[in-house]
Design goal:
By secondary structure, the chain is mostly helical. The protein is 37% helix and 9% strand. It contains 3 helices and 2 strands. Strand 1, helix 2 and strand 2 form a beta-alpha-beta unit. The chain is elongated and about 40 Å long.
Length: 78
């Protein structure tokens, strides 16, 4: 699904780079460190090889809440 979105954006704006802007928790921070780590890895590591204009990106809204979360920080390579 995201490949379709970014491919469409790249086609509509051929002189621009496209990327993922923000990610956060819709219903509060998940209580499981494993769930948080899996979500971080999924979105921070997301690539779209079929869209050369995709530049990555990501901004985590819950960063301050996670500073004491060693599992989450480890998942991000911090």
């Amino acid at each position: 699904m995201l490949e379709t979105i970014f491919s469409g954006l790249a086609s509509r704006f051929p002189n621009a780079k496209v990327g993922f802007g923000e990610c956060g928790w819709g219903n509060g921070v998940p209580s499981s460190a494993a769930t948080r780590a899996a979500l971080y890895q999924r979105f921070y590591g997301y690539r779209v090889p079929t869209v050369p204009a995709y530049v990555g990106g990501g901004f985590l809204w819950a960063w301050a809440e996670l500073l004491g979360d060693d599992a989450a920080l480890s998942a991000l390579g911090v």
